[in-house]
Structure to design on (271 residues):
């Protein structure tokens, strides 16, 4: 299933609105990690796929792991589903800001996103973290699923098992990921 | 000694939950730190395991019992095997 321009536009547009905003239309809001955990139970009953739910958990929990106290406007995690595409997004500080704490030499959002997906590093160093996105990318590649991830201008896509990094002219305020199965 | 992971839940995903599980196990389940018995971590009955939860549980477990062998069994669930692989455990 290819990633249509309509889906990209529908999922990205809300997260491209300059802050502050006070509402995200068309998305389910998980205000806290506990609410998200309860939804993961529902996801598992719906899809019965351990790897998919593990990826949802890793990507969704990043919103709470890295943005508590750092939301741009709306707090929490936002979710939408269209057919076999699942979208998770937040209005947090974004990958570049998070990693800049430990890697101040990062020059761009694109470099930050590439680092997040390819190196075991976390904005919460010295805590030993930084496996979640690598795990998610590895599973998505092995299952021949698709990923579009953007934070700021940095983009990571996975299609047909190949991971690619790009920069966009349109900013995402926070992070957004959509997974196609 | 065998640790039945399913007793901590069937969907094991977040870091806070993994950290709490280890602290609870340390208080009520785990043997003394100077035990010489092998520790078996049994994943039977677990529906979903994610690296965040596993890192918060298995990493301190390995540090706590650094001198004895820790064996993982019933790891056939694909989320369990993929998680253990990326963490380099078991």
């Amino acid at each position: 299933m290819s990633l249509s321009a309509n889906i990209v536009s529908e999922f990205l547009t809300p997260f491209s609105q300059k802050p502050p905003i006070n509402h995200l239309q068309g998305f389910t809001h998980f205000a806290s990690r506990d609410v998200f955990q309860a939804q993961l139970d529902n996801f598992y009953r719906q899809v019965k796929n351990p790897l998919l739910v593990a990826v949802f958990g890793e990507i969704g929990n990043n919103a709470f792991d890295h943005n508590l106290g750092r939301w741009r406007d709306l707090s929490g995690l936002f979710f939408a589903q269209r057919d076999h595409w699942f979208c998770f997004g937040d209005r947090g500080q974004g990958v570049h800001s998070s990693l800049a704490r430990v890697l101040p030499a990062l020059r761009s959002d694109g470099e930050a996103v590439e680092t997040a997906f390819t190196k075991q590093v976390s904005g919460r160093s010295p805590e030993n973290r930084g496996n979640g996105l690598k795990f998610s990318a590895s599973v998505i590649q092995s299952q021949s699923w698709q990923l579009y991830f953007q934070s700021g201008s940095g983009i990571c896509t996975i299609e047909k098992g190949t991971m690619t990094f790009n920069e966009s002219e349109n900013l995402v305020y926070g992070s957004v990921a959509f997974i196609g199965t | 000694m065998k640790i039945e992971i399913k007793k901590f839940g069937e969907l094991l995903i977040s870091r806070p939950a993994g950290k709490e599980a280890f602290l609870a196990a340390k208080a009520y389940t785990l043997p003394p730190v100077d035990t010489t018995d092998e520790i078996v971590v049994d994943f039977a009955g677990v529906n979903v395991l994610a690296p965040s939860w596993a890192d918060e549980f298995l990493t301190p477990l390995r540090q706590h019992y650094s001198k004895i062998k820790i064996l993982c069994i019933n790891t056939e669930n694909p989320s369990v095997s993929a998680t253990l692989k990326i963490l380099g455990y078991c």
About this structure: Chain B has a mean pLDDT of 95. Residues 2-87 of chain B form one domain. Residues 26 and 32 of chain B are 9 Å apart (CA to CA). The helical segments of chain B are 15-28, 51-64, 78-87.
